[in-house]
Amino acid sequence: MPDDMVDAHIHGVTNALTAGWRVLERGGTALDAVEEAVVIMEDDETFDAGRGSFLNRDGKVQLDALIMDGATLRAGGVGCVERLRNPVRAARKILSESPHVYFVAEGAERFAAEHGIALCKNEDLVIPREVERLREYQADAAQHGNDLFAPSSDDVTISHDTVGAVALDRAGNIAAATSTGGTLNKAPGRLGDSSLIGCGCYANNESAAVSTTGWGEPIMKLVLAKWTADRIQAGNLPEWSAQEAMNYLKQRLNGHGGIIVLNPEGHIGIAHNTPRMAWAYKTVKKQEAGIERNAP
Ligand code: GLY
């Protein structure tokens, strides 16, 4: 993220933390907490989620999201939706009210509308900053003869502002949610890691709640959220496992990204192999937010 966006990112993740914590404080579930935290970041134009997301090749916002309950392993995901301000709300409805796990595109929008979620126009999700960013990217790619449809996944100068949250509630249950507009200039219909179980998001009370950000294709190929949860189930701490996941992403596929991890004992891990990642956490004893630090 550029220097002038650092404060906005810290502010955004702190607001999300406040919303999630409010749920937990009044005895709510981890599932509700991660939903509310992610809604705040989807509504914040700073991030690549909801309104203000990166645009695809056609200049449209196309969103993916997943939410998962570590107690029951129930999950809800939406992919390639264009008319939902808060895809995580639709994902939650799928988790709570559908026997299915995924809905995509128009089918997801129809499911959301049938379950009381208002649809918006795609233009309502597009902001001038992103129109300009896409214009610049496409002009630059055309000038340099790059493949417009396959920007390099190892280019760390392209930011990935996918948002995510993990939480542990009083009942001892964990949950995770992830939401994204995907990658800049992506091909229409391209689905990223964020809404795929075990890739951009995973939660299981037997291991950990995990959310990832970064270039989706390498993360998907490594099923990285589940890979990390498996390390924790094998007895490793989230802090070590989060860092190992970033090392593995870099070493195996030259991928880049970030990860937040929480186990049912309340241990956390925060790591990234990008120059920066905004994060914030709160426990009954402590609250912290940051952008550069690699692990708490
Ligand atoms: N991690 C977001 C994406 O690649 O779609």
Itemize the secondary structure elements and their pairings.
Blueprint: H1 6-25, H2 30-43, E1 63-69, E2 75-81, H3 87-97, E3 102-104, H4 105-114, H5 128-144, E4 163-168, E5 174-180, E6 201-203, E7 209-214, H6 216-221, H7 224-233, H8 238-253, E8 257-262, E9 268-272, E10 279-282, E11 287-290
Parallel strand pairs: 2-3
Antiparallel strand pairs: 1-2, 1-5, 4-5, 6-7, 7-8, 8-9, 10-11
What features would you describe in this structure?
The protein is α+β, with helices and mostly antiparallel strands. The protein has a domain at 3-205. It is 35% helix and 20% strand. The protein is built from 8 helices and 11 strands. It has helices at 6-25, 30-43, 87-97, 105-114, 128-144, 216-221, 224-233, 238-253; strands at 63-69, 75-81, 102-104, 163-168, 174-180, 201-203, 209-214, 257-262, 268-272, 279-282, 287-290. Strands 3-2-1-5-4 form a 5-stranded mixed sheet. The chain has a 4-stranded antiparallel sheet with strand order 6-7-8-9, covered by helices on one side. Strands 10-11 form a two-stranded antiparallel ribbon. Strand 8 and strand 9 form a beta hairpin. Helix 1 (6-25) runs antiparallel to helix 2 (30-43) and helix 2 (30-43) runs antiparallel to helix 3. It is globular and about 50 Å long. It starts with 5 loop residues before the first helix and ends in a 6-residue tail after the last strand. Residues 160, 162, 180, 182-183, 192-194, 200, 213-216 line the site of glycine.
